[in-house]
Design a protein that fits this description.
Layout lengths: L1 E2 L2 E2 L7 H13 L6 E4 L6 H11 L7 E5 L5 H9 E2 L11 E2 L1 H4 L4 E5 L6 H13 L1 E2 L8 E2 L3 E6 L3 H7 L4 H7 L2 E4 L7 H19 L5 E2 L1 H9 L5 H15 L4 E2 L6 H4 L17 H17 L4 H8 L3 H10 L5 E4 L5 E4 L1
Helix pairs in contact: 5-7, 8-10, 10-12, 12-13, 13-14
Length: 334
Amino acid sequence: IVFGDWSSDVCSSDLAMRRVFDLIANAAPSDAPVILLGESGTGKELAAKAIHDIRGDGDRPFVKVNCASLNPSLLESELFGHVKGAFTGAYRSREGRFAAAGGGDIFLDEIGDVPLSVQVKLLRVLEEKVVERVGDHTPISVNVRILSATHRNLPEMVREGTFREDLFYRINVIPIHMPPLRERLEDISLLADFFFRRLQLKSGKKIRGISREAMRVLTEYSWPGNVREMKSAFEFAFVSCQEEVILPRHFPPAVCGVGADPRELPEAGAATAPDADREKRRRLVEALDAAGGNQSRAAAILGVSRVTVWHWMKKYDIRFERRIDASGQEEGRN
């Protein structure tokens, strides 16, 4: 299985993940709904894309919708479409994501955040295979497999009345639980090797390897952000490392823990020793550089809020411009 941009054959020796790969392979040919469960950063979207790709038909669409990013009225229009004049600003008719995914798969990320009013319509899609655009009562047939994902506890939400029980049973046909990285200790060294080799090729830096001390730090860290956090940690390390080997101090403060909890960085106006200030400023610059100048991404690397990063930038007089390189990637400039 090619899981995202890495192969399951080389990136997991964990039994639980092997079972996940088996379920993905077995679920792919089916038209039954699949729900991916697990913490943020465990690879639920990658698993959904793998389920879609295994069929091998490049003509089948794969449409993604983040249900948590839209308010109820916009989500309904995004999913089912709308007709001209259905609401203020609807200057023309628009097909929804279900229609766009016809003959393929639609991935409903964060389905636990879908409001009850939209859950009713989702249930009808599953039961009758039809949608109705906002402002129109003409049913439109759709042939779509629903892949969904959530980090929420849906059975508990059903008991609380915030998620429909009938919808839960319709989407919970093939549940796949994505285990957190802290329960897959055998995979940490494999993933570290994968991210190291990929960034080594991408960056062109003459970094030969990862020190034993750095690997020990990686295996002892709890990885609350899971695989996504590990990927960001290695991106940070490749920016901060100027030696031939990655050392513990090259990882983000939250990971290496070397006098380095980012929350210990002082707020504006606090008095600190000049050497400590220089070190803390350096770590902030490295995080911003790794994030391409994006303050939200830098905050995620450092484990703090975006507002905190903004305060630190003001304190240390750091100005980053966000630029786009030829490949469309962001580049930070100090």
